[in-house]
Amino acid sequence: MNQETTIVEEIRKKLREYETDTVCSLVSEALRKQTDPSEIIEGLANEMKEIGDRFNKGTLFLFDLVAAADVMKSAMKALLPFMENERAPQSLGRFLIGTVEGDIHDIGKNIVVSFLTVSGFEVIDIGRDQAVEEFIQKAKEFKPDIIGASAMLITTRIQQKKLIEALTKEGLRNRMKVMIGGAPTSREWAEKIGADAYARNAAKAAQIATKLMATKEDER
After folding, report:
1. Ordered alpha helix ranges (H), 33-61
2. Fold of 93-219
3. CA 26, CA 10: separation in Å to the nearest integer?
4. Which architecture characterizes domain 3-84 according to CATH?
5. Average pLDDT of the chain, as a whole number
6. Where along the chain do its domains lie?
7. Partner residues linked to 122 by β-bridges
8. 181 pairs with which residues across the strands?
């Protein structure tokens, strides 16, 4: 086991214990040792997923979920300046992203925003619990190349389908690619509702978005 792996695992352990100051100190130490910021984020994201799974199974309480989320946000603040140093010099495209109506979970979406920003996208984050109408209004205002809709509950993923239907009705669908993500979503769900792509994690989301932009260029 190498040193990088050890410190990322220690960061994950301290996240489980909700030790904000220790996590931030370890993040700073890892960065001083030139650990790839994306590796640290992946470790944090995987730990948050495990905490979320345990909450859904009833082995953790809402307090635990909120406490872990607070630690995660502090860690991301410490990481973002280092990630911005690696940002691509020219914008790849405009990406509008939000969490769908009825869903207040935004940790995963926030991580995706960080990866997209570093990859060179101009990101418009409209936040969480956003109605289809808000997505449509912002799409008309900002004219994004790609729209990303996140859903973390099986009861809210239907909003992703409604968004695509609304984009079609408004005559915007053929001008904007649509990506979906979140725990209850899948490649099969994306195909069923007519989305252009599905991403299972933040790193994949940035990679797939970059490929979608290449596709858009080929279509022009």
Report:
1. 37-56
2. Rossmann fold (3.40.50)
3. 8
4. Orthogonal Bundle (1.10)
5. 88
6. 3-84, 93-219
7. 94
8. 150
**pLDDT tens for residues 81-128?**
777 655 555 678 999 999 999 998 888 888 888 788 877 899 999 999
Q: Which residue did the predictor score with more confidence, 130 or 76? A: 130
Q: Determine the Cα–Cα distance for residues 120 and 118; give it in Å rounded to an integer.
A: 5
Helices marked H in 85-186: 107-119, 132-142, 158-169
User: Cβ distance 97 to 38 under 8 Å?
Assistant: no
Task: Note the pTM of the prediction, 2 decimals.
Answer: 0.72
Task: Look at residues 1, 82, 68, 97 and name the one whose alpha carbon lies nearest to residue 34.
Answer: 82
The token pair that represents 72 in the structure block: 């995660």
Read off the tokens for 57: 């199974």
User: Which residue shows structure tokens 């345990």?
Assistant: 54
Burial (0-12, 13-18, 19+ Cβ within 10 Å), 18: middle
What are 126-156's pLDDT values in tens digits? 999 999 999 999 999 999 999 999 998 999 9
